[in-house]
Amino acid sequence: MTDSRKTNSVIVHKIYEIDNPERETEVCVDIRGIVCQFYCHMKNSLFILLCVVFLLGCDKGISPNDSLVDRKPGFAGSVAFVSSWPSNVLEMRIVAVPYYPVDSTVSELIGKFLNGVIKSSDPLSVIGDSGSVQQYTFFLDPGNYEYVAIVQRYGQNYYTDWRVISIYGYTAEHPTPKQVTVQPFQFITGIDFTVDFNNLPPQPFKP
Amino acid sequence: MKLPVISILMMFFFAIHVPAQTGLLQGKIFSAEENSVLIGATVVLQRTTLGAATDHEGRFIIRRIPVGTYTVVISMIGFHKKVLEKVEIRDGDTTFLSIGLIPSLVQAEAVVVTASKREQSLEEVPVSMSIVDAKMLEQRATITIDHALRYVPGVNMIQTQINIRGSSGYSRGVGSRVLLLVDGMPLLAGDTRETIFEAIPAFQVERIEIVKGAGSALYGSSALGGVVNVLTRPISDRTETRWRIYGGIYDKPAFEAWRWSKKTRFMTGEMFSHTQQFGDLGLIMAASHMTDDGYRENDWIKRMIGYVKAKYILSAFRTLTVASNVMYQKRGDFVWWKNVKDALSADDNQRGYSVTSVRANSSVFFKQFVNNDLFYEVRGTHFLGDWKRDSTFRPDVNSSRSNVVQLETQFNYTASETHQLTVGLSGNGDQVASNLFGRHVGFGAAAYVQDEIILGPRFTTTLGIRFDLQKVDTLPLSQQLNPKLACLYRLDEAMTLRGSIGRGFRAPSIGEFFVSTSASGIRIVPNAAIKPEQSWTYEIGMGYSFGPAGSLDIALFRSNFHDLIEASFDTTFAISFQNITRARVVGGEISSQFFFFDRALSLGFHYMYLDPFDEGEKEVLRFRSRHLGSVNLSCEYSFVTFGTDFRYVSRIERIDENLVRLAPIHDGEVRVPIYLLDARVNVNLFTLGIPMRVGFNVNNLLGYNYVELIGNVAPLRHFVLSVEGLF
């Protein structure tokens, strides 16, 4: 209902009732049914929700015990250099490859490294000479690594100037690499290498 | 050049000085059902710039209305809009209205402006959209608006980086795939195109509108995954001063090993705003100051914001609005943890760094109603970003200064009863000077047109297209054409069906083109060859109203992304930004809100499922969660409101392994699902006649420890007491 009164200077409108009371009643009946149904569902849902919240209150999420720093899988050992060093030892790293990388180019292998397929250790020291021995530690993901080797960068081009200077398990008598298997939370020691710059192992790379 | 300036001055002169016969409209708005006054109802004289909102007594007043006959529109969320035609305004007279609004069966009668760049009812919007209103911001003690966005269905935040429906992962703050607007104008940093939420004065925000899905057909670059439009408070026609103070403390860390400081960690803030009318000039002045000790080492913040907004009513059909906002901030820079055993301590290499920044944003808006069918708005904005990161321990300083200028003219024309046209032209200029990005300039220009066509009493369709040109320095010109098509079908009063297809793009930022630095021994090099990212978004949805009992919204969506830009190694063993990824994100979203006991109790459920797939790498996309859910409960009894928000985000399946490996971030792999419960009590003393509100919030009530971003524990449980008042 609309009430409109006009005085000398004021127009007053009052609109305080709906246009069609019957229609409103019909809708209300329908809605009450829906509300009741939902109310029952909601009551149950609310109870379940409170239980879930209570249970979640016991879970604190991340904790210091989740640290992987002390439980990181990996291996360690020594690197013995048995000949004099060339002048171009710019960088040396231990790499672990899950497969034998035969017929791969250096670029392809670096691509695999950047994608995380090939793992690399922190750099070894590039100060040393014949007779020096370095200890190393290499943290990496658990898995089977068929080819574990030491690589040397001999030039300024990060993308091409690499060569293999030692392969784990490779000797003149046993000229195949030895697999290293790292289990979850397992840290292996005794993965030792010998490097002879005068007698390098076969290079797996295509030219 | 002189002629237009003189014309504009003359136009203002005449607008100010031409004597006019005017009258006054005042009145009271109340709920027709409960007979209680309605606070915040909007009263607008259609086709004019004149309007007002009701005060805490439900009263409004509109002055200096030119004599004539007007259509008055009264609206408020939750009530049927009331349209009064032929309301007469006489010279020197007062016209009084006392209007009772009827509660709406369809709850979603909110008026929004972002979906079509014009005012329309939310139920007319043919795309998925959410709203965060001022009440929600107040009740959740919002300090920066990114906190409020965490509660929005379909939105996931990774620290301050926003992700709508899986569009974004984490890109180290560079290149937002969601466009942030303030009052309709973009607010992205000129150098990195990142969102700077802290630069927005949260105390002055009226509401936030979030449009989900590609929006480049209207908004251009960066609207790849959606648009967030922050709308500031209109200037009230009454003199009032609002203030809010808050203080809070962080709970002690749950583990002894994490207790890096013996001191209690506090947060405090003060903010005020004053509104006054000087004739036809309305003014808001506001300032705020906040400090946060931080719950982590080197994570402190000190921030000040000054804000001014002035609106001059040039005539009943013309307004000029000017706004300016300046933020000064100094904060510690916690980049990532030492390791999870020492998770609240900064990594040794990041100790002692701090970031000082100034962000200043100024805008001008001129709006004119030409006639009953046409109005236009000319708007311009300037955004200055200036930051410096330095260290007390190392001679390591990075800094950047950027300026962004944007201009836009928009025409809205009602061509006929069935065609509503929106046409616009825009241009922008960027300038950057930085030791990271170099010195560069960029330009852009765009034109857009949209037609909303009423094809029948139940069916409307929207067609739009926008053409963008972008040029940075001497790089080749980049051009983009972004169309959209959206349809809305109203099955009956309660149910609507909608569908939309739209294209989005994001032009690379100057930072992505030209960054040159090194980190952790790895070189980061420029790449001038990157192209804009693109997306296509498809959506079908349904909205259903249960009348006073609540509402339900369901949407199914798919987004295809092309040429996504990510930082990656190039052939020289260096990192650069490259177009490397194609991806698709398929998902569904269900959102519902139910009301009980005369709306005294409300309960909302939201759930979103995502299948984010990297088609290049054939793996799940990085930094996306598959499941997002939330439940919110609000209970109002007399002047006390109690509320809780529970949020669940499933564990991020895949992170940036290279970042963890090469940074290195120790224990960077550690992450868990997110279960977050916030609770609040608000005492509204306004209803007792005391103009104050007291709020107590407990965030992260369960004391649950989680990471949004790798190597960063999210805020611990903290308690905030806030008091807000008005005089």
Give the arrangement of secondary structure elements.
The complex is a heterodimer of chains A (207) and B (727).
Chain A: E1 2-6, E2 11-15, H1 21-56, E3 74-81, E4 91-97, H2 106-114, E5 119-120, E6 133-139, E7 143-145, E8 147-153, E9 162-167, E10 180-182, E11 187-188, E12 193-195
Parallel strand pairs in A: 3-11, 3-12
Antiparallel strand pairs in A: 1-2, 3-6, 4-5, 4-8, 7-10, 8-9
Chain B: H1 2-17, E1 22-31, E2 42-45, E3 51-53, E4 59-66, E5 68-75, E6 82-89, E7 94-101, E8 111-112, E9 120-121, E10 129-133, H2 134-139, H3 145-149, E11 155-158, E12 161-164, E13 178-182, E14 185-186, E15 205-212, H4 216-219, E16 226-232, E17 240-250, E18 266-278, E19 281-292, E20 301-315, E21 318-332, E22 353-371, E23 374-391, E24 398-416, E25 419-434, E26 438-454, E27 459-472, E28 478-490, E29 495-506, H5 510-514, E30 517-519, E31 522-524, E32 533-545, E33 550-569, E34 575-596, E35 601-614, E36 619-620, E37 627-637, E38 640-649, H6 657-662, E39 674-684, E40 692-699, E41 707-709, E42 712-713, E43 718-726
Parallel strand pairs in B: 1-7, 13-16
Antiparallel strand pairs in B: 1-4, 2-3, 2-5, 5-6, 8-9, 10-15, 11-12, 13-14, 15-16, 17-18, 17-43, 18-19, 19-20, 20-21, 21-22, 22-23, 23-24, 24-25, 25-26, 26-27, 27-28, 28-29, 29-32, 30-31, 32-33, 33-34, 34-35, 35-36, 35-37, 37-38, 38-39, 39-40, 40-43, 41-42
